[in-house]
Amino acid sequence: PTTTPTTTMITTTTYRSLPRSPPRDIMHCQLSCLGAPAVSLPGSTGFGKGASLNDVSVEDCRNACTDTEGCEGIVYTNATHGTPFSSMCFGRRDIHTSMCQPGGRHFTELIGTYPRGKCALFGDPHIISFDRVYGPPVTVLKAGEYHLVKSGPLSIQGRFGYTKRFPTAASTVGIAIGGSMVKGHTLVVVFTGPMPGAEGFKVFWDGKPVLAEYPSTFASADGLLAAKYEAMDPEKYHREGRHTIGGDKGLLPSYLFEFSESSHKPPLFLTLYVLLGPDNVNAVITTWKMVGGQDGYCGNFNCDQADDSLEALKVRGASLPIPAGESLFKHGAAAPAWVMRQVDPPSIDDCDPVVKAKAEKACRGVPEGGAKACIFDACAAHSAKAARADVQEDMATLALAQQRRVLVKYQRHLGGFRISQGPRLTRAVFIALGASLVIVVGVLPVVRRRLRCEAVAITQESGAEFIPLIPIAA
Fold it and tell me: I want to staple 89 with a disulfide (CB 3.0 to 4.6 A). Which of 53, 226, 271, 288 is the partner?
C-alpha cells in the first residue's frame, strides 16, 4: 500500500502592538548582531537565537522589543528570499558591535540603551573606530597627543610619536585614561626608553609607578582597577592584535587593565589591552557608548562610519592635538625627545629613489588600490619589505570582513528545517539535504534555490550550535 506523507503545520501568533508613540533613543546600525544573546519576543516562532517574530513592520518589531523585559534591541530584515515570511524580527540584548557582522540584508537597532564596542590602534597608527568595525582605519602621521575618547565622564588620550621603524610617520607610544567615570583616577602607559621593548615602557596609576616587574599584578585600593603584566595572546582582544609588532603566533608581553564598579551592569565597564612593541604599542579599548555623546579619533560611536573619517573629524575639531594643560600624560612620564620631534610627514614625491623602486616592485599586484598605500608605507619605513607585510595584513582584514557576512543556510530535516550557528567559515561548499543550495564563502557570490524555510544561520567564531527545529508546510 502507498503511504501518504503527513505535513506538520506550524501555528504562529501574530504580534500587533497598540497605537503609541514610537520608542525613543533608537540607534540604527548597519550591522547584523544576530550573535548577541537572544530575547524571545511575543508571538515568535522558534527557540534561542533562531526565534523570530515574522511578518511585522519595523515599528511593530520595535514595540515588541519595548514590551518585552530584557530586550535591548532588534535585528530586522525584509529581504527574506527563500522563506515563507515577508519580514523577520529578532530580539537581542547585551549588543557588542565589535562582535557583529557587516549588515548585508539585516540591520540592528538599539532601543533605549547603548552598545559596547572596541576602538583599536595598530601600526603607524591605524585607528579602527567604534563604528568602523571592519575598517577602513584613520591614520595619524604627526607626533602629538590627541583625544581618542573625549566625553563628559571619560577621557582617553593617545600619544603618537616616531619610532625606529617609522622615523617620519607617527605610531602609538602612549595611552592615558582619566575622568569622573574612573573616579578621578589617572592611568598612563608610556614608552620612555632608552631600552627598546618591554623594558622601555612604564605604567603610572595616579602618578605612581605600578607593574614595574614582569610578570606582576596590581589592584587599586578602592577596587576600581585590576591590572596585570604578563604574556598574553593579542588576538584574544582583537583580530588585528598582532598587526606589525605581534608576529603570527605565541604569547607576548602585554598589559591588561580592567575597570569595574558595582553600580555598572555588568560591573566591568572599561578594558584597555596594550601589546608592547620595540618602541610603540598596539592598543584595544573596550567600553560602552558614552551617555551625553563623545568624539575623538575613536569616533562618536553613533553607528555611522562616514562621520568617523579624518575629514569629518577635522570639521568637528576632533582631530586637533590636545592643549598642554589638558594632557593626562603629565601624570606619567615624558617621551624621549627624538620620539616627539616635529618632522615633515613622508611623501612619495620625496621618497628615496632606491626604496621607491623596490617598493613599486614589492607592492605590485596588491588589490583594491592598495599598491599606493604600500609604496607610501615603504617611504615612511624606508623598507619595502616591511610595507608589503603591513599592507598584506590590511588586505587580509578586508577579506575577513567579507567572510564574516551573515549567511542564510537552509537544511531540510525531518519535515522541517534546521537552523544552525556554525564556526567561522573560510572556503566551503554546503549542499542542503533535499535541495540544491550551494554557499561559497568569502568574496564569491551566494547561489541558492528558493526553499520554504523560516531559518537564518549565523557565521561566527563560536562553536556549532543547533537550534531546535520548527516544522513547516512542504
Answer: 53
